[in-house]
Amino acid sequence: MSIFKVKDLNRIIDALVKDGIELVDIEVFDREEIEGELIGATIEFNGCSDDEEGIDYGGIEEYTQT
Length: 66
Prior knowledge:
By secondary structure, the chain is α+β, with helices and mostly antiparallel strands. It has one domain. Helices cover 20% and strands 38% of the residues. The protein is built from one helix and five strands; from the N terminus they run H-E-E-E-E-E. The protein has one helix at 6-18, and strands at residues 24-29, 32-34, 37-39, 42-47, 55-61. The strands form two sheets. The protein has a three-stranded antiparallel beta sheet, covered by helices on one side. Strands 2-3 form a two-stranded antiparallel ribbon. The chain is flat.
């Protein structure tokens, strides 16, 4: 399980709505360890459009307490 900030999710959703995007491809990348370094989970958003590649809306990283 991964935890994400609602504020970060809302930022992406607001951009999708503003641009009139009705469908989104969401890709979830689980936590993983690479060469001893823990890489947090991320969610990537790609707005579906008439263009085959879609529109990259970036991603957000999971919340970690510091």
